[in-house]
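Lecture 7 notes: from sequence to structure.
We start with the chain below.
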Amino acid sequence: MKKKNKAVSFISCTIIFSVFLILPSFSFAQVYDNIGFKKDVPEEIRKACTVCDEFLDVKWIDERRHIGKLKTEWYKDGKKEGVSYYLVRLLEPSPGPVPILTCIFYNIDEERYHSKNIEKLIKEADKFEYALVGDFIMYAKKGKRQIQLGSADSIPYFPQPGVSSGQPFKKTFSNFSKTICVLYPNKEYVSIAETKKPFIKESLSEEEKKIFDQLIKFANNKCKEITGADAKCYTEMIKYCDVIDANFDGLDDYIFRFSLLDELGRPNKTPAIWYIYFSKGDQHKFKELRGCFSKQSFMPIFYSSVGKRIIYYTLCNLTEIIQGGN
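Predicted structure tokens for the same chain:
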């Protein structure tokens, strides 16, 4: 009997020790999950929106005006930091030559998130107003009564040099490891709130390093073509490129930008040059993205048409561009 107990103890210890040995390997394959992700997404929506890895679980308060609330966790520099509460406001998309969409997350506290009075005010409000006083603030107005609902939060933070001012604050839904979407109440469009950014990691896989080096090489060669000189260009921004399946073929496409250097080796003040490195059959090709940004619009805005399987990128029909359109 004692020999049997010793054998069981030895086996148990061996198993426990083995688990501790393999734990580090699990830690390197971190899965970025979030209580803010919708768990019961209908299969037909997932099939129609293959570009989306996850959908935010927005509880719609006013479906007509696309205003809802969201309880979500957030990550900073790859670590889960806590829970935040938001009001989510989507503007009406306008597909065509100049598609425009803004998805804004307004900070609120837990009490307001659960408040039936705030929900009632939103449903009955005559209109919503927005003011920029340090922060972009949202107000609900009913008659002469005006109540501040919340101030805009930079989630997900867009960490790209030259776009954001101040100190970097990498606050995201999935540490830029997934394409995160917000499905419109009418289920005709999705707003893409977060894209994958694989090159911001400290350690890249062999395949990621290969692609990153190809983008850097292409940018430097293109700058030499433009300047006619044997000089490199400013490529720091490539590290923050957006990765998205723009042609729905199941392969990643890479949207990146770079700029020329002036005579002192500083980034030139002329507009950045935008390209997409996209999958075409069994290979990838480069194509310049022209006319996608206005003078007032310098931050990428993505959204997708659910039924037609089209991805819009700020002022461009991105899917059409890489299929040979203008």
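Points to note: The first helix runs from residue 2 to 28. Residues 1-29, 162-167 have pLDDT under 50 and may be disordered.
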